[in-house]
Design brief:
This protein is mostly helical. It is 77% helix and 4% strand. The protein folds into two domains: 134 residues, no CATH class; 148 residues, no CATH class. The protein has eleven helices and three strands, in the order ααααααααβββααα.
Length: 288
């Protein structure tokens, strides 16, 4: 083996060394937010949609690929990466998981900018947004959102029950039926279905729709659909409990109602996406 060939082999062996070192440093720095995020996806019902969103986001990013002519922005990417590391350190001192996970996403964004530039970030806008939506909100935010949703679902459900001549009395998030009380708990607030439907709206809009206005409109449609159908779930629970069997308000039957309602909500969202796609085509024809 000549000295020239040996030098080429040494250089080719050393070429990936910065990448390997950077990857190891990234894992060491952001290992805890990655592990805790995965644990929340597996154990927290409010975060379970991340198990679907994250693999889908990775697949979409892989399918989109890398831009043909990358234009790395070293300064911007390095600045964002340094800021993410500082945020990771401060959030670690405060033991604040949400900020810690945002620092993880910020570091990933910084690496993409450093290696490929803004065009790659724009190319991966949908996978990036899906990954962002897979990060659970802080408990304080969830609590502040869940309570108003509980009260709203209780009011709407009680109104539907009265419409069907079921004697009810509403006290906050408690619907009192003759001989029985239904508690609209935080788990029944509709926040889980709302979060999941918004994420599905973003996914469906990114895949099936072309214009920004139709994508935003689809996400906005998901909000009242989730709230209305959750009220219908509360109504069905009270209706079946009063007219059929009180045991239908708990256990497997109650869980099955939630899944059926979510399937209906997803079907409505899909139909809305179809209608918006048709409107998009008509708008494009009118413009041409």
């Amino acid at each position: 083996m000549t000295a020239t060939n040996l030098g080429v082999r040494v250089r080719s062996f050393k070429a990936p060394a910065p990448v390997i070192i950077s990857g190891l440093a990234f894992l060491v720095c952001f290992w805890r937010p990655m592990v805790t995020l995965g644990q929340d996806w597996l154990t927290d019902p409010d975060a379970g949609h991340g198990l679907l969103l994250f693999p889908v986001a990775l697949y979409l990013a892989w399918k989109s690929g890398i831009v043909a002519e990358p234009r790395p922005q070293r300064a911007l990417g390095l600045a964002l990466l340094i800021g993410a590391v500082v945020l990771r350190y401060l959030s670690g001192l405060a033991a604040e998981l949400f900020t810690m996970r945002i620092s993880l996403l910020g570091a990933a964004l910084g690496l993409v900018l450093y290696l490929y530039g803004v065009r790659q970030v724009l190319r991966w806008w949908l996978p990036g947004l899906l990954i962002l939506l897979s990060v659970p909100l802080p408990a304080v935010v969830l609590g502040s959102l869940a309570l108003p949703l509980q009260f709203r679902a209780s009011r709407w459900g009680a109104a539907l029950l009265m419409w069907r001549h079921v004697p009810v009395r509403l006290a906050g998030n408690v619907i009192q039926l003759p001989g029985r009380s239904l508690f609209v708990t935080e788990a029944c607030s509709g926040l889980r279905s709302l979060t999941a439907l918004i994420a599905l709206g973003v996914l469906a809009g990114g895949l099936w729709l072309q214009s920004a206005w139709s994508r935003v409109l689809l996400v906005l449609i998901a909000i009242p659909v989730a709230m209305a159908l959750n009220a219908v779930r509360v109504f069905l629970t009270g209706f079946l409990s009063y007219y059929v069997d009180p045991r239908l308000a708990e256990g497997f039957m109650h869980l099955s109602e939630g899944w059926v309602i979510f399937v209906v909500a997803f079907a409505i969202l899909g139909a809305s996406a179809f209608v918006l796609a048709v409107l998009e085509r008509r708008v494009r024809r009118a413009e041409t």
